[in-house]
Fold this sequence. Notes:
It holds the Pfam family Beta-lactamase. With 374 residues, the protein is an alpha+beta fold.
Amino acid sequence: MRPTRPTAGETGHPAxxxxxxxxxxxxxxxxxxxxxxxxxxxGAEGEPLVHAFGRTAVTGPAVPVTADTVxxxxxxxxxxATLPAVLRLADTGALGLDDPVRRHLPGxxxxxxxxxTVRQLLTHTSGLPPHRPxxxxxxxxxxxxxxxxxxxxxxxxGTAVAYSDLGFVALGEVVRAVAGAPLDRAVRExxxxxxxLADTRYRPPAGWRGRTAATEPRPxxxxxxxxxxxxxxxxxGGVCGHAGLFGTAGDLARYLQRGWLAADxxxxxxxxxxxxxxCHTEGLxxxxxLGWTLRGDRWDHLARYWPSDGAGHxxxxxxxxxxxxxxxxxxxxxTNGVHLGRDASxxxxxxxxxxxxxxxxxxxxxxxxxxxxx
Length: 374
């Protein structure tokens, strides 16, 4: 399968980028994914190389995927919306990373929670559990949000890494309280508009649906297009700190290059970027930066040759980003693998295989799992 649109060029290693794109094409051609967009590059300079494959759905309305296809970014919301918004507010002095969360959120109540800091929410060391089915609670979104903020700790703050959606729900509320604006507006003003990310937003408009990839079919057989897949985010109104953002591969490429890799990032100072990308959790059962997953963490999807200062994140719908602050490769892989169900084995293998292809000192053909063909 060939790309659906020619690209403007590439910096870095064309053979490695071509090998990575071939892996994505093979995963789509085999039926493991409905479609996908891969954007790759090296460092802050140069145009991304963007390849698009497949269709936006296998059931219901479906069109060919292009570089402009919009995907439900799922947990990439954490590092493309909530994290940079918090860091911008920290850069300006509006909040401190070591502020108690309760200073900004009086509703963040419960035993031991007065000791939880903004930094601990960002590093997933707050002691909050990973998940609670808020969407199963009756009532209105405000009541579900209050329940999320009052969720009891399961470990003492600062003692263990436990990836927590609830922690990022709270961080979204911190942004809202400190910025004095709804989270979607705060993210737009603090992050999206300064970077020129016009194709990234919460609650995408109806006009985007024709180019938006479908997610998991509902029990009634309907196929969601442009409404958030994450049940908790949907039950909270679609605008949350942990999920809810939609966007394109081109916008995420610009976010990585201009927001994190460029010396003159318009949103984040070099100091706060360095702080976000260093490990804060040695000896706590994981390797986490501020928001980011680092090399050696249990959720690290980077490959063996990826630079040691690499960072990344994944999303449940089938999305991922990876970067190397030292100026090495970066990658954006957007898929709607969840459209075919919640068995993520294909996309999990593909993420790592793509990163392997981009950094292997001996580039060449591979299977979709990253192995050399026999």
